[in-house]
Design a protein that fits this description.
alpha+beta; Jelly Rolls; Arc Repressor Mutant, subunit A; 3 domains; six-stranded antiparallel beta sheet; four-stranded antiparallel beta sheet; globular
């Protein structure tokens, strides 16, 4: 079985290499499936990670959330259950053996339907835990992920077969070690989904001041319960989450739309340029001008891995 796993893992890497020829994040004709390639290690990258499962076929990556550090390679898969700001870094990659990853974004409706059809227990929706989790990649998961990417070579089969293979992958996740985390994604009354409603509100309104009472009402939770579960899941408070979104969007405005630092700061809700510059430097390791110069000098730092 081990020899078969090595062979299947090699095929998955070959498929990603074939359909993602340049460094970056590549959408595919298969809904919710993205291929990621990097030809060398990167500096730490600040990104908002979507709910997804990630299978590394080659190389090694590290993701940090709060004090949590998750290092994974082809032996483990990563599950992310809510939109969460992370610091990601490719640790092992080179031009001859690039970092290669398959990302499948999670669809709560498909997860919920699978739970209902399969009769699997939903678990205790009152519990909450970190948004990220790692587990060993099984032979069955690796096989399904490989078959999913084979469909890229047969476009006419994608519409019929890709949903079937996606359901297989999600089913195997729902009966695996990350079952509790995945099952909470599916149900609207879970603690995770209550926090997810708060996250959605903050994402839509991050440039505006807000009170915790308003966000708690959106989540249908008390302020104290929201603060407790929000921090348990995202490793930060709602206000810290808002700050990360503000600073990441300001960075995007400066890098992609050539906004100056003062304009970008105002656009994301900062009244004080000095406070904006100070908090920007604290998060990204340098004030806006130096940080953007570094990103432009090293383009691979600018794309979300």
């Amino acid at each position: 079985m081990r020899g078969w796993c090595v062979e299947a893992g090699s095929e998955l890497a070959e498929l990603i290499d074939r359909f993602a020829r340049e460094d970056g994040v590549h959408a595919t004709p298969i809904a919710r499936v993205f291929l990621i390639r990097a030809s060398r290690p990167t500096m730490p990258l600040h990104v908002l990670h979507r709910p997804a499962v990630c299978f590394v076929a080659q190389g090694r990556k590290q993701v940090m959330v709060g004090e949590g550090i998750y290092v994974y390679d082809k032996a483990q898969y990563l599950v992310v259950s809510v939109d969460v700001p992370v610091v990601g870094q490719i640790l092992k990659a080179n031009p001859r053996s690039p970092y290669l990853c398959l990302r499948l974004d999670l669809d709560p409706a498909i997860l919920g339907a699978l739970l209902l059809e399969s009769g699997l227990r939903a678990g205790d929706s009152r519990q909450s835990g970190p948004a990220l989790g790692l587990s060993a990649t099984t032979a069955e998961l690796l096989d399904a992920a490989t078959r999913l990417l084979r469909l890229l070579a047969a476009p006419r089969d994608i519409a019929i077969l890709a949903p079937l293979v996606e359901r297989e992958i999600l089913y195997r996740l729902l009966v695996g070690q990350q079952a509790a985390r995945l099952r909470q994604v599916a149900f609207a009354d879970s603690r995770l989904q209550q926090v997810n409603r708060a996250i959605g509100w903050i994402k839509r309104n991050f440039a505006r001041p807000f009170s915790i009472d308003v966000v708690a009402a959106e989540a249908c939770m008390s302020p104290s319960a929201l603060h407790q579960h929000f921090k348990s899941i995202t490793a930060m408070s709602p206000l810290q989450y808002q700050k990360q979104l503000r600073l990441q969007d300001a960075r995007r405005l400066i890098l992609s739309e050539a906004a100056d630092a003062a304009t970008a700061g105002r656009a994301v809700g900062y009244d004080s340029p000095s406070q904006f510059s100070r908090e920007y430097g604290r998060l990204f390791g340098a004030p806006p001008r130096r940080d953007i110069a570094r990103l432009k000098a090293t383009p691979d730092l600018a794309f979300g891995l």
